[in-house]
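Customer escalation, tier 2.

The customer says the design service returned an amino acid string that "doesn't look like it belongs to this structure." They asked us to rerun it and document both sides in this ticket. The original structure tokens are below, unchanged.
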């Protein structure tokens, strides 16, 4: 065995050395390959076959095609963070039966199909955080029988259908925080017997999803903070093993006495930062040990005595202080004596009405000829059947209807009769040139509408009549020459609008009228030359604005006023040659992610980034033509900074950047383009700064040219994260 292992190691070392692709770094001993921030457009085909860990962070793949990793079947860890991935083709990861860790965070994936993750039978951790996933088709995780952690944090989910997580038999932690969830199917969490923690905080839930949560017999921790929940009703939570419940920073005004009676193991209850003026004795929660009430406007009158007495009898620790009456303001609850809690103060407001229960599924029906209907998933499909007319007769309880790749041409009025429970409708690639008035009539539960790859050039507002819940509208790759004016007046719940790769030439005043709740606007790949100063004003809640690949000649600064929530702005691949002062000042207080790459940018004025600073987490400036950039020392919160392929002139004017780079623990890729003697050298290794006034001050350059020269020699000491570890061999290509 020892000889076999030695032979395998030698073979691996030889293979890795011979086939390490450009611009990657290969660790021969540990079977690791790193291809970081290399602007790769496709998965390298020459990765050594025996590679176990492959790190491809910071590249530009856009699509992961079928069988992309068939040449590396021994992979156990695959990192594809920040690779601009928009689509996972069905079968993209086939052949990776040994993979245990897959990181797809911070990409642009919008939809998970049923076979997107096929072939990952050993996968234990799947990280999809920070994408824009709007919908998960039932069965998408059906092949992940070994998964223990699923991270879907910070996506764009509004709805979870029944059985969506089927197949995840050993999943222990499901992270759904920071989405926009407001509807959960009653069977959404069915078939998760091993789940121990569920994170649903920072969503749009207006009531406890009692039916869905009742399926989680084994869960011990539930995070529901930062949801607009106003009331917890009688026996609202039936989770037999629950020990820790967080309902902090919600909108709670009242909690029923027996709200937690069916969760007998509950030990800690976090109710911080709500609107509670008091609580009844929570007698049903017999095992409760601690309640947190800090940040509530507690009225410590005689009306609070029953709760106070119960705390003492049940020996429950409490955190919180009185807000009124004035004589007791600021007093901790556990310091009060009953005589101090006097009557004569205003009565507590009555409990708000119990929110209505989520509607139950009812009804069934036949399936149109040639189509497939799944009663378990409530899913109907007539994909790629060469249909000329939209079929009728789907079961009335259908939630997802897939009609992709047909030839309908037109969607007539009343095209979907009886489908009041339909949530997701797929009409991609159907040669649709017209959506007639009333086409969606009766689809009162519709949340997702996909019309990608059709021939639409205009839309009337009446086309959306009868679909008031529509939140996601995908019109990518159609024939729009301008935004469909007035089309959003009947869509009060619209959150996400996709109009990428159309032929839109400008954004005019009034184009977004009625889109007051819009959060994400995707306009990449159009021909936009002008944005009117008030064009974006109706979308006051806008968080993401993608304008990459258009024809803008300058930053649309005037159009950014009135967008106080904008956190992500993409201007990549626009012909912006010069960036003037205060270019991003209107959104300086909220902006976190800024994309300015591949623009041919030649000059950035010293005041271009005025107002920006610690809030900025990622800044992309790669593949531009400027030779200098302004002082960026105020950008102290950066996680990502990309300055690759920028021809910096390494003279004394660039010294502030040189010093600043020394303080960063980031790979930024900055190289000198001139003068000739240092062309191609990394900025932080250039010796041209040694003659600059003040070179010897601070940490950047040492105390003398001699010391700097010595420091530039290879060191025998290990460098922390600044160079390849021992055993790595750089490609000589």
């Amino acid at each position: 065995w020892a000889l076999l292992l030695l032979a395998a190691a030698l073979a691996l070392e030889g293979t890795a050395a011979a086939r390490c692709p450009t611009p990657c770094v290969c660790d021969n001993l540990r079977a690791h390959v790193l291809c970081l921030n290399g602007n790769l457009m496709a998965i390298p085909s020459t990765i050594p076959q025996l590679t176990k860990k492959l790190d491809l962070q910071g590249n530009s793949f856009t699509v992961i095609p079928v069988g992309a990793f068939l040449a590396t079947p021994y992979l156990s860890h695959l990192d594809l963070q920040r690779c601009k991935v928009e689509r996972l083709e069905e079968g993209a990861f086939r052949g990776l039966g040994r993979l245990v860790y897959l990181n797809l965070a911070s990409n642009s994936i919008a939809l998970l199909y049923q076979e997107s993750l096929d072939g990952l039978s050993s996968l234990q951790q799947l990280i999809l955080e920070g994408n824009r996933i709007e919908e998960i088709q039932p069965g998408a995780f059906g092949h992940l029988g070994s998964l223990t952690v699923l991270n879907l944090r910070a996506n764009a989910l509004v709805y979870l259908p029944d059985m969506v997580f089927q197949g995840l038999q050993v999943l222990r932690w499901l992270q759904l925080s920071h989405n926009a969830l407001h509807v959960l199917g009653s069977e959404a969490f069915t078939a998760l017997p091993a789940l121990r923690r569920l994170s649903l905080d920072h969503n749009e839930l207006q009531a406890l999803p009692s039916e869905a949560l009742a399926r989680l017999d084994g869960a011990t921790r539930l995070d529901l903070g930062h949801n607009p929940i106003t009331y917890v009703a009688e026996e609202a939570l039936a989770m037999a093993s629950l020990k820790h419940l967080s309902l902090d920073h919600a909108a709670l005004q009242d909690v029923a006495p027996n709200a937690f009676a069916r969760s007998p193991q509950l030990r800690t209850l976090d109710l911080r930062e709500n609107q509670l003026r008091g609580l009844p004795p929570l007698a049903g929660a017999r095992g409760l040990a601690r309640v947190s009430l800090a940040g509530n406007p507690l009225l410590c009158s005689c009306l609070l005595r029953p709760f106070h007495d119960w705390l003492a009898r049940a020996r429950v620790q409490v955190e919180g202080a009185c807000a009124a009456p004035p004589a007791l303001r600021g007093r901790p609850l556990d310091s009060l004596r009953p005589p101090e809690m006097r009557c004569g103060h205003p009565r507590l407001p009555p409990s708000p009405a119990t929110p209505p229960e989520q509607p139950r599924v009812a009804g069934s029906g036949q399936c149109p000829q040639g189509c497939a209907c799944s009663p378990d998933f409530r899913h109907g499909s007539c994909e790629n059947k060469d249909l000329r007319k939209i079929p009728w007769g789907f079961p009335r309880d259908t939630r997802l209807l897939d009609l992709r790749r047909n030839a309908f041409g037109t969607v007539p009025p009343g095209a979907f009769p009886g489908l009041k429970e339909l949530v997701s409708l797929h009409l991609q690639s159907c040669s649709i040139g017209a959506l007639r008035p009333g086409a969606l009539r009766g689809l009162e539960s519709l949340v997702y509408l996909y019309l990608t790859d059709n021939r639409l050039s205009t839309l009337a507002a009446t086309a959306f009549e009868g679909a008031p819940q529509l939140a996601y509208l995908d019109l990518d790759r159609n024939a729009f020459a301008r935004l469909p004016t007035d089309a959003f007046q009947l869509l009060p719940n619209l959150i996400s609008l996709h109009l990428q790769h159309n032929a839109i030439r400008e954004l005019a005043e009034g184009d977004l009228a009625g889109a007051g709740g819009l959060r994400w606007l995707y306009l990449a790949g159009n021909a936009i030359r002008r944005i009117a100063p008030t064009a974006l004003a109706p979308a006051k809640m806008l968080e993401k604005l993608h304008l990459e690949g258009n024809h803008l000649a300058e930053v649309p600064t005037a159009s950014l006023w009135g967008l106080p929530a904008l956190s992500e702005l993409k201007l990549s691949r626009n012909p912006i040659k010069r960036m003037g002062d205060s270019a991003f000042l209107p959104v300086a207080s909220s902006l976190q992610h800024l994309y300015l790459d591949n623009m041919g940018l030649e000059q950035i004025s010293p005041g271009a980034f005025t107002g920006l600073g610690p809030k900025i987490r990622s800044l992309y400036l790669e593949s531009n033509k400027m030779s200098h950039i302004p002082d960026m020392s105020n950008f102290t919160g950066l996680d990502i900074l990309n300055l690759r392929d920028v021809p910096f002139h390494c003279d004394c004017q660039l010294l502030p950047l040189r010093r600043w780079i020394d303080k960063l623990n980031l790979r930024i890729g900055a190289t000198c383009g001139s003068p000739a003697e240092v062309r191609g050298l990394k900025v932080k290794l250039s010796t041209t700064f040694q003659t600059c006034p003040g070179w010897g001050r601070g940490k950047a350059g040492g105390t003398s040219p001699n010391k700097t020269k010595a420091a530039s020699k290879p060191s025998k000491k290990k460098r922390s994260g600044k160079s390849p570890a021992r055993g790595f061999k750089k490609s000589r290509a």
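Tier 2 assessment: The sequence is consistent with the input. The CA atoms of residues 273 and 295 lie 4 Å apart. The two ends are 35 Å apart (CA to CA). Sent an explanation to the customer and offered a walkthrough call.
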